[in-house]
UniProtKB/TrEMBL annotation:
Catalysis: reaction(s): pyruvate + phosphate + ATP = phosphoenolpyruvate + AMP + diphosphate + H(+)
Enzyme class, broadest EC rank: transferase
Active site: H490 (tele-phosphohistidine intermediate), C865 (proton donor)
Ranges where the Pyruvate phosphate dikinase AMP/ATP-binding domain occurs: 23-391
GO MF entries: ATP binding; kinase activity; metal ion binding; pyruvate, phosphate dikinase activity
Annotated PROSITE patterns: PEP_ENZYMES_2 (PS00742), PEP_ENZYMES_PHOS_SITE (PS00370)
Homology family: Belongs to the PEP-utilizing enzyme family.
Species of origin: Rikenella microfusus
Protein name: Pyruvate, phosphate dikinase
Keywords associated with the record: ATP-binding, Kinase, Magnesium, Metal-binding, Nucleotide-binding, Pyruvate, Transferase
Residues bound to Mg(2+): E779, D803
């Protein structure tokens, strides 16, 4: 154990670590080392590794201190030598900063302590050395405040309480008639330190530590502990970072930006993180320390003249006033600015990415405290990648990998105006089911959404849950909010398909259809009230929040072309209407992987014919009704084939249980009875007879086609006739007929017989032929494990991972919301298996099915059409599982294309 290196020194253009060691040294530590190696001025220091953080949680505080003490003491000696000061000296004290640094940046999640080493003796020496007692005492009081908060737990006692230190500051301000912190004199600050320390003794029962080494160990362990604080845990959960990573601790000599008007501190970006524009930008404060810039107590000034002018324009400040009151660093300290500009250029060129940098100017000397790849918006991410490519800074593959697929979403949907949303009141939160921003007046019924739209009104459809009957209303509304349902609930799937904003499963909402109200806690909203939804975060806001349309710039198209160049997987869309298909095609879909034909049944008067078919007494009655549906379906299929111009179109035969289509309320049942010329009682009886205890496992999927083959006949005829009509127009067609919910190869065999017989009938009638494939969905576990038998019949497989997840895990896709939050909290599940493919279970079945299927039918075409087909990590799995394509809702097509390219490029590496 003794030869494990736990502490890495850096300083004076030398370093034991380097920029590649992010896992061990954390992002900050690795880059501090690298900056030294490339000759950038960095205060000397050392990094305690992330492995020690893990050891901290197994060996405890004392165990870890014993383990690292000799190495830390040795590293501290090197810092002392380089800085010409001594840690713990009473005459020439070296002060240190202690900061966290995980392998990825987790801004603001963990703790930092500055000015460590300050005590009753050091403060006098610093006052003497700097000739600035106010600065010395201010540094001391900042240290006691930070250390008291982070290490000694001096937090407010309750939600209503003030921070104990801020309370003292406020009291002293009041007593001395002071408005601004900067007005405190050295003597005031001395008094403040004494009062802070007394507060510590009172609250903790222990005196504030005066010994610098005791301070240091306390701080180091507190940083390790902050890895497990609530917000860090939450942040990791949100970003799916494992707890095992741990944080490193960076202990570094202090440099001071608060030593007077020749000192300053700032934060800058080498490009604009919001827009991606290639412009150096950032903020600074003269005579300030570390966190002051972000704390927002004083208004920071812009670093460049250009930035300063833009800022002033926004504020409505004229040039003269700007120059006098808010000059840029470029104007105030031109020589230091020039050096900073050179360094930022150097850093971006060296790291080949936009850098987020922190710096301090101590008495006219510039020090760099941090550089890291800066966080950015989706828009900025795309622009920067494509501009850096054209500048020659990065190559094509790097440009593709630079853009996170999920971030593309921000570019595709309307978004909330940033300022407006910051001011909006959050009412509750549900699942971010379908991204985008929507605002409208509350309606509770689908037909109201339609009627209100006709009257020029904007609506949000609020439902306990949605059913296919609500489709038209969902289409008419700007957004959909449901109290129940998960990420693959009807509302979520349909909304994503439409590219419509949807928040589902907002469990805190009580919907009262009768009263036409929704209640959240003690807030009651009624029909007609305005609300806004953020489908990317799941937030529900009160009132009307302004939105702005997405702008798909040229860079987006260029990026998509590159993604296609490197991806192996093809990307198709789940689209049910020619309109969705058009949208998908515009986003680059290379075919349709799933057309859910039942979704076509809800438009216009079609539902009537469908109901007639379902409620018919016998085959003859069904055929009569089906004959009405035939031309309608044929027309829709023609539309799809035309839009897709010869790209494959997979049409799935009817899937859902029939009782979903019939009316459930007396009023509608009576209307239908009148229309069909039968008694209300008869309709009521029929509807009741169709009800199932467990419809998801009931009379649905190919079980419908096998019990009522005339449905399959009608649908096949519609598909084949449509394809032949389109072909006649000179447009190529590529037809794939897909049979749902097969679990036994004989189910498919029977359906194939009906399909082939019908197709041959049409060919004979028209004296012509077209090619078509018959395949199946693999969504029943038995189908996956008997894939060899099924592949004897099926010409392609499409994994329906919504049902396959439901049946493999035994979790109802509509009810998972009831226990998922608790399962996530307890760590029983790492993520929602309906969003992110369960690779171990469902994934194993997919691999097995692909292997067995291709064993029987060489090169069997395999795809996925469950919701996972548009989720980046699931797409990566599909790449490795050797699938040919993924299929997802139109608005996720670009994301899947990029994710497919990422998977291929990562495998190359
Ligand atoms: C599936 O089960 O994954 C699928 C695509 O079918 P549906 O969601 O329509 O059941
Ligand atoms: Mg299914």
């Amino acid at each position: 154990m003794s030869n494990v290196k736990r502490v890495y020194s850096f300083g004076n253009k030398k370093a034991e670590g380097n920029g590649k060691m992010k896992e061990l040294l954390g992002g900050k530590g690795a880059n501090l080392a690298e900056m030294n190696l490339i000759g950038i001025p960095v205060p000397a220091g050392f990094t305690i590794t992330t492995e020690v953080c893990t050891e901290f949680y197994t060996h405890g505080k004392d165990g870890v201190i014993a383990m690292i003490k000799p190495d830390v003491e040795k590293a501290m000696k090197e810092v002392e030598a380089q800085m010409g000061m001594e840690f713990g000296s009473t005459t020439n004290p070296l002060l240190m900063s202690v900061r966290s640094g995980a392998r990825v940046s987790m801004p603001g999640m963990m703790d930092t302590i500055l000015n460590l080493g300050m005590n009753d003796q050091a403060v006098e020496a610093v006052a003497k050395r700097s000739g600035n007692p106010r600065f010395a005492w201010d540094s001391y009081r900042r240290f006691v405040q930070m250390y008291g908060d982070v290490v000694l737990g001096m937090k407010p006692q309750s939600k209503e309480d003030h921070d104990p230190f801020e309370e003292i500051i406020d009291e002293m301000k009041a007593a001395k008639g002071i408005v601004n912190d900067t007005e405190f004199t050295a003597d005031d600050l001395k008094e403040m330190v004494a009062r802070f320390k007394a507060a510590v003794t009172k609250q903790t029962g222990k005196d504030f530590p005066n010994d610098p080494w005791e301070q240091l160990w306390g701080a180091v362990c507190a940083v390790f502990e902050s890895w497990m604080n609530e917000r860090a845990i939450l942040y990791r959960q949100m970003h799916k970072y494992p707890a095992e990573w741990g944080t490193a601790v960076n202990v570094q000599a202090m440099v001071f930006g608060n030593m007077g008007d020749n000192s300053a501190t700032g934060v800058a970006f080498t490009r604009d993180a919001a827009t991606g524009e290639n412009i150096f930008n950032g903020e600074y404060l003269v005579n300030a320390q570390g966190e002051d810039v972000v704390a927002g107590i004083r208004t920071p000034q812009q670093i460049t003249i250009e930035g300063s002018r833009r800022w002033a324009k926004l504020q409505g400040i004229g040039e003269e006033e700007r120059k006098a009151k808010y000059p840029s660093l470029e104007e105030v300290m031109p020589a230091v600015y020039k050096e900073l500009d050179e360094i930022q250029n150097h850093l971006e060129t060296y790291f080949k990415d936009m850098q987020d940098i922190e710096f301090t100017i101590q008495d006219g000397k510039l020090w760099m405290l941090q550089t890291r790849s800066g966080k950015r918006t989706g828009e900025a991410m795309v622009r920067m990648a494509m501009e850096m490519l054209s500048e020659g800074l990065i190559d094509e593959k790097t440009a593709v990998l630079r853009v996170e697929p999920a971030k593309l979403d921000e570019l595709l949907h309307p978004v909330f105006d940033k300022e407006a949303v910051a001011k909006a009141k959050v009412l509750t939160k549900g699942l971010p089911a379908s991204p985008g921003a929507a605002t409208g007046q509350i309606v509770f019924f689908a037909d109201d959404a339609e009627a209100w739209k006709e009257n020029g009104k904007e609506t949000i459809l609020v439902r306990i849950e949605t059913s296919p009957e609500d489709l038209k209303g969902m289409n008419a509304a700007n957004g959909i909010l449901t109290a129940r349902g998960g990420m693959t609930s009807h509302a979520a799937v349909v909304a994503r398909g439409m590219g419509k904003c949807c928040v589902s499963g907002a469990g805190a909402i009580q919907v009262d259809y009768k009263a036409r109200t929704m209640t959240i806690g003690d807030v009651v909203l009624k029909e007609g009230d305005w609300i806004s939804l953020n489908g990317s975060t799941g937030e529900v806001y009160e009132g009307k929040v302004a939105t702005q349309a997405a702008d798909l710039s040229g860079d987006f198209g260029k990026l998509m072309d590159l993604a296609n160049k490197y991806a192996h997987l093809k990307v198709r869309a789940n689209a049910d209407t020619p309109r969705d298909a058009k949208q998908a095609f515009a986003f680059g879909a290379q075919g349709i992987g799933l057309c859910r034909t039942e979704h076509m049944f809800f438009e216009g008067d079609r539902i009537k014919a469908v109901r007639e078919m379902i409620l018919a007494d016998d085959e003859q009655g069904r055929r009569k009704a089906l004959a009405k549906l035939l031309p309608i379906q044929r027309g829709d299929f023609e539309g799809l084939f035309e839009v897709m111009e010869g790209n494959p179109v997979t049409v799935r035969l009817l899937d859902p249980p029939l009782h979903e289509f019939v009316p459930h309320f007396e009023k509608e049942q009576r209307e239908l009875a009148a229309e069909m010329g039968v008694s209300y009682e008869k309709i009521k009886e029929k509807v009741e007879a169709l009800a199932e205890v467990n419809p998801m496992l009931g009379h649905r999927g190919c079980r419908l086609g096998n019990t009522y083959p005339e449905i399959t006949e009608m649908q096949t005829r519609a598909i084949i006739e449509a394809a032949m009509n389109v072909k006649k127009k000179g447009i190529p067609v590529h037809v794939e007929i897909m049979v749902p919910l097969v679990g036994n190869h004989k189910e498919l065999k029977y359906q194939k017989k009906v399909i082939d017989a019908t197709a041959n009938e049409v060919f004979a009638e028209r004296n012509d032929k077209i090619d078509y494939l018959i395949g199946t969905m693999i969504e029943v576990p038995r189908a996956a494990v008997t894939a060899n038998e099924i592949a004897e019949v099926a010409q392609f497989f499409s994994f329906g991972t919504n049902d396959l997840t439901q049946m493999t895990l035994g979790f109802s896709r509509d009810d998972i919301g009831k226990f998922l939050p608790e399962y996530l909290k307890k760590g029983i599940l790492k993520q929602d298996p309906f969003q992110i493919l369960d690779v171990k279970g469902v994934g194993q079945l997919i691999r097995e099915a692909v292997f067995k299927g291709r064993g029987v039918r060489e090169g069997l075409k395999c795809g996925i059409c469950g919701e996972h087909g548009g989720e980046p990590s699931s797409v990566e799995f599909c790449h490795y599982a050797g699938l040919n394509y993924v299929s997802c809702s139109p608005f996720r097509v670009p994301i899947a294309r990029l994710a497919a390219a990422h998977a291929a490029l990562k495998q190359e590496k």
